[in-house]
Amino acid sequence: MNLLLTLAAFAVTLGILIVVHEYGHYVVARGCGVRVLRFSVGFGKPLMTKKFTPNGTEWVLAAFPLGGYVKMLDEREGPVAPADLPYAFNRLSIYRRSAIVLAGPVANLILAVVLYWFLFIYGVPGIKPILGEVPLATPAAAASLHRGEMITRIGDELTVTWQDVSWILIQHAVQKSVVEIETRNERGEIAVHQLDLSGLSSDELDNDFMEKLGLTRFHPDLPAKIGKVLPDGAAARAGLRVGDEILAVNQTPLVHWEELVQWVRQNPGLPLTLGIKRGGVYSQVKVTPASVKGTGHSSVGKIGAAPMVDPALFAKLVTEVRYPVDRAFVQALRKTWDTS
Fold it and tell me: Is 0.85 surpassed by the pTM of this model?
């Protein structure tokens, strides 16, 4: 059932994107005086056709809705009557033909902006800009930023989510400026930091530029307690169960789930002895992490288990963002830019 719903949602989404894309071509072509012979959603055998006027556009829904096309009058695709030559695509100037070609992608961008605009007006969840570990020898460390601080302002602009932080910082990074950052810690104390962005090169202004600055998202320290076991994973084969507390690995005590992750990732194919507590009883279990391909040519270990998560803990890291109409439009433009 879930697969069918996913496929149905995919088909509807794809259909909307196709219609908007092709309609962009259609509108600009008509605006430029080109006769549009056919507007088709899908390829293959037509299932439905409709023509509103004898010389008008033929609207088609075809058998395979994995695309679409707009067919325009064009001498390169067949004979054109002398009286119809002014309406042929190939008779237009290069500028008008370029406008028609670009109209499809532009229409999709406009759709994205409109959808994001309504979402930001209605309200969308966002991740609070709380700092994670600040690596040494980074601009963030030099600015005395610390884990757990929440960025509340950059320059003169308030920051509510990580998206706000990323967007504002990249604008300052292009100018290679030193920017003032205001933070608030868990005790409510406010501090002001000077973050130097001049060390970023133009090649580093990509999706990872925040990490290069030493700015990472906060991840709470989860207890080393199993919340999910995949049925075919190494953890299941070893007999681990939901609720098991992992107290040690190879007789080395641990407290947080991230410590267990590091042990597992660094020992692909090598047996590990876990000290666990189940129902108040201590025991030892041997588990051999499966070896899977990591980044590059290296391999990492996985056991097919996930931590037990307190929903209230993560609820504190999420906020709902609503904007007035004008600011929502600006945010929609930013989000479209980020995802394009």
Answer: no
